[in-house]
Design brief:
Number of helices: 25
Largest sheet: 8 strands, mixed
Strand content: 15-25%
CATH topology of one domain: Rossmann fold
CATH superfamily of one domain: P-loop containing nucleotide triphosphate hydrolases
CATH architecture of one domain: 3-Layer(aba) Sandwich
Oligomer: single chain
Radius of gyration: 30 Å
CATH class of one domain: Alpha Beta
Structural class: alpha/beta
Distance between the termini: 111 Å
Shape: globular
Helix content: 40-55%
């Protein structure tokens, strides 16, 4: 890299190394080459802080590797500065080429972190957020035509590849948190291998921790590896034995830390969000019983994927007025890079995950140990002066790395996307870990049932349109079908409400009955899908009311305002998508008999694989596709009304989880006649034999069913006569023997 393009800056050791691109103006004024304005005093203050980060020790090595190689792997843990500094250096590299090959994009696995990093980097570069530095996360974009460095979630970059399959807008792509092994990150890593062959000028940087970096080196071959030396780890204290009661042990430890009056906030990693919310209520209750001299203890729930930014620390160093206790879940380790106030980490060492089973098309809830990779990251989070309490023995054998999510997820959406990429000219995705063949076959079969594939196994016209809609394939097909049945407005609402977080708030125990009564006002006799439309319509009505705000209305009815706002944004995005691909949007007619029937038809067009029948009239539902028994979830409108109104015999459901109670969620009544009308015949004939299938067969072919029934009865008579004959012969033989 020439000195003309990269003016030298002197680092702390006095060695010359490519530095911040700037040029003199007058005697003492430097201009920022990214926006042409003079640097502020804050820029120089932050620059001194940046130079103390471990990543700055390898800056020269990294920039040399970037100039001479298409692909660079950087190995380093949290708090090394990798996620903030390396994208900036890539931006300087692209600037040196006058952005001829494009700008810089850096992916994150967590939307919250993408925003946090963009804000921090804009501050460090002394530019405006939304201009030179921006971010793109689901349902929110903060960018402009001037944006040179953009942070985004990995799924958003994949979505962008629908219109830009070779990422020609970018001169450098940074894949951060590759060790998280999300489905989107793994697909990006697989597709980029082919894109690099097509675009020799493109640069790709992958940031990860071991042992993922070792696997990347084996996958990509001879590529440079930049090693970052981590800062000294905290003091680590392990439990002496396997702690089956890890939940209450963690809470007791939090209270002990608070009573010891040591400075610093705490982070506790639990197995699931249910445990997190339970811990919050317990700590709130216990906090009121602590002495005032200990200061306030504030439990804060922060789970990946729930949105909302990390709270910025407003405490002054040495302040003892309050201690925040952050409660989080698995795969949330990298969220804590910006919180310097954390001095204690409590790691329960377990995680509750949903693992997809392609044979039954359902998720199973599994409790398993975290990986060694996760454990090592958590040990770094409290800094060299903190403490990490591991509630498991030091000699515990943890899995080396995070399990790739592509091996544990429903890959039908992935296969649909990759089929679309084949049309765009990209070769096959070279996965680091190939998906399970059984899961792959199930995904292809499901897309075939949904009419997304043609006879040659390529995307059909319907499949191409489905790939344009940012929904799971089944919901995308249901939304497409609603165009035919004139119920698009209602299906948009249903799709948005099911894509957003649950809108139902869990009330305090003493207010449970009141919350149930409030939710019952929205219940629709035809099922949960229709109840969701009622809730959304009532929410929109509350926004138009002058005397009461939407937030207050949600609070009164125990509904989550942020979840409903998310649903509103998703619905708007889906509406824009349908308008862009010129699909008709019908006027709302919710509440009429015709509209109700049409909504059920549209739902079954996508979810015909998810039907069940109450076999005994008591709520024991038989799922036709895999012959499992399930119950309606207690929070369903049917769950609340079952004793009064009775349960429907046939239902279509949105989600089924194989767990302790085997619950179906979001359930609506449907008639078997409508199912026969909407389900593909070859799917019906592939259903395993059952009494429920025989009932449907009778509706499909009454004459054939009658003949089949007569033959079965005749066979039963012959069988009983034969059994009787055998009994007589046996009896006669016995008498002969006795005589």
């Amino acid at each position: 890299m020439s000195e003309d393009n990269n003016p030298a800056a002197t680092d702390a050791d006095g060695d010359e190394c490519p530095g911040e691109d700037s040029f003199g103006f007058g005697d003492d004024l430097e201009l920022n080459r990214f926006d042409g304005l003079p640097f502020s005093s804050r820029y120089y203050k932050l620059l001194e802080e940046r130079k103390t980060l471990p990543v700055w020790e390898v800056r020269c090595e990294f920039e040399d590797a970037l100039v001479n190689n298409q692909l660079v792997v950087v190995r380093g843990t949290a708090r090394t500065g990798r996620s903030t500094q390396i994208p900036q250096w890539c931006a300087e590299f692209c600037l040196s080429a006058q952005y001829q090959h494009g700008m810089v994009v850096c992916t994150q696995t967590n939307r919250q972190q993408a925003v946090d990093l963009a804000l921090r980097v804009a501050d460090e570069m002394d530019v405006n957020i939304g201009h030179e530095v921006g971010y793109t996360i689901p349902l929110e974009t903060c960018c402009s035509s001037d944006t040179l460095l953009r942070y985004c979630t990995d799924d958003m970059l994949l979505r962008e590849m629908m219109s830009d399959p070779f990422l020609e807008h970018y001169g450098a792509v940074v894949i951060d948190q590759a060790h998280e092994r999300t489905v989107s990150t793994d697909i990006l890593l697989g597709l980029l291998k082919d894109i690099l062959l097509q675009r020799p000028e493109l640069r790709v940087v992958v940031l990860a921790v071991p042992p993922t970096t070792d696997k990347l080196l084996r996958h990509y071959g001879s590529i440079p590896l930049i090693r970052l030396e981590a800062s000294c780890a905290a003091e680590v204290v392990h439990s002496n034995s396997d702690n089956k009661d890890y939940f209450y042990s963690a809470l007791r430890l939090v209270l002990e830390i608070h009573r010891a009056k040591e400075d610093g906030d705490a982070v506790v990693f639990f197995a699931s969000e249910e445990e997190v919310h339970c811990a919050q209520s317990i700590l709130r209750r216990e906090g009121t019983r602590l002495g005032a001299d200990l200061g306030e203890m504030v439990p804060v729930v922060l789970c990946p994927g729930q949105g909302g930014l990390l709270p910025i620390s407003t405490k002054q160093p040495g302040s003892k007025t309050s201690r925040r206790v952050f409660l989080s879940t698995q795969r949330g380790e990298d969220m804590w890079w910006s919180l310097e106030s954390v001095n204690f980490v409590i790691d329960t060492g377990v995680q509750k995950k949903m693992v997809y089973n392609p044979r039954i098309r359902a998720n199973s809830e599994v409790l398993q140990p975290i990986s060694q990779c996760q454990a090592d990251i958590r040990k770094q989070l409290s800094g060299p002066t903190g403490k990490c309490f591991c509630l498991y023995p030091e000699e515990s054998q943890l899995p080396a790395e995070n399990a790739p999510q592509i091996l544990e997820s429903n890959i039908t959406p992935t296969v649909l996307f990759l089929k679309r990429m084949e049309i765009a000219g990209l070769g096959q995705c070279d996965f680091i870990d190939r998906p399970d063949p059984e899961g792959l076959m199930q995904a292809l079969e499901e897309l075939d049932y949904l009419a997304a594939l043609d006879d040659d196994g390529n995307l059909s016209e319907i499949g191409i349109i489905m790939s344009e809609i940012p929904l799971d394939p089944q919901m995308a097909k249901a939304l497409l079908a609603s165009c035919e049945f004139d119920c698009v407005s209602e299906m948009l609402t249903i799709a948005a409400m099911l894509s957003a977080p649950s809108c139902f708030l869990k009330p305090p125990a003493i207010m449970t009955h009141e919350a149930v009564q409030c939710h019952r006002k929205f219940q629709h006799p035809d099922g949960d899908h229709f109840t969701l439309v009622n809730i959304y319509n009532a929410f929109k009505q509350s926004q138009r009311e002058q005397h009461i705000g939407a937030e207050k209305w949600c609070q009164d009815y125990f509904l989550d305002h942020s979840a409903l706002k998310t649903a509103e944004a998703i619905r708007s995005e889906l509406t824009d998508t349908l308008n862009r691909i010129e699909l008709p949007i019908s006027d709302p007619t919710f509440g009429t008999k015709t509209n109700t029937l049409n909504i059920k038809r549209a739902l079954l067009a996508g979810f015909f694989m998810q039907i069940a029948r109450d076999v005994d009239g008591s709520g024991n539902y038989f799922i036709l596709t895999h012959k499992h028994m399930a119950q309606v979830h207690p929070l369903s409108s049917y769950g609340a009304q079952s004793q009064k109104l009775g349960l429907p015999e046939w239902v279509v459901f949105h989600e089924y989880t194989l767990s302790e109670n085997n619950y179906m969620r979001t359930v609506s009544e449907m008639s078997p006649q409508v199912f026969i009308q909407m389900a593909p015949l070859y799917f019906f004939y592939n259903l395993p034999p059952s009494e429920s299938k025989d009932i449907l067969q009778g509706l499909l072919d009454p004459e054939g069913s009658r003949k089949c029934k007569d033959e079965k009865q005749k066979a039963a008579v012959i069988s009983s006569e034969a059994d009787a004959g055998c009994a007589v012969m046996t009896q006669t033989y016995d008498r002969c023997v006795i005589q």
